[in-house]
Amino acid sequence: MKRLRPALLWVAVLAGGLGLWAGHRLEPVPAPSAGSATPPPRPVVDVAGIGDLMPALVLPDLSGAPVDLQRFKGRPLLVNVWASWCGPCVEEMPELSRYAAAQGDTGVQVLGLALDTPDGVRDFLQRVPVDYPIVLETPGPADASVRLGNAQGLLPYSVLVDAQGRIVRRKLGPFEHGEIEGWAR
């Protein structure tokens, strides 16, 4: 009789577990009531691809003044999307700054697009100053980064726009030392 007790105990535990599982699985799911709010639909985002014109974007600079990105037309533009809390973004900033300084008034323009807060960007730029313009955007499912083709929403993300305003290259991830020159050709 003593040998049957452990077996009966295991059968009882197994039966109880199956009963709990079945009760949970077979429990009716309540239907939404007529007065309950449904979540808003996700925004439909027009995502630019290679060969497409850069979307019309007007974003604030650090002082809050609107910057129309169409003003950069006429010269190639490298848009680098970053955030002050993004480790790889922080690591590539000196390389981007060096590249921007080497371009002078006729080469590729560099624009930083920070998915960040103004205070976060200001604090960062005090530690790691750059000489190219920075604009701000609030991260979200339809932010400027997504509209520029960053469907995954990962950082850093860079886009090269030709002088006519067409997207010619995209890069997800940081630039290594000396990589930008070859990539932007």
From TrEMBL:
GO terms for cellular component: cell envelope. Keywords: Cytochrome c-type biogenesis, Redox-active center. It is found in: Cell envelope. The keyword Membrane does not apply. PROSITE patterns: THIOREDOXIN_1, THIOREDOXIN_2. Residues 48-185 form the Thioredoxin domain. The keyword 4Fe-4S does not apply. Its main location: other. It holds the Pfam family Redoxin. PANTHER family: PROTEIN DIPZ, THIOL:DISULFIDE INTERCHANGE PROTEIN DSBE. This is TlpA family protein disulfide reductase.
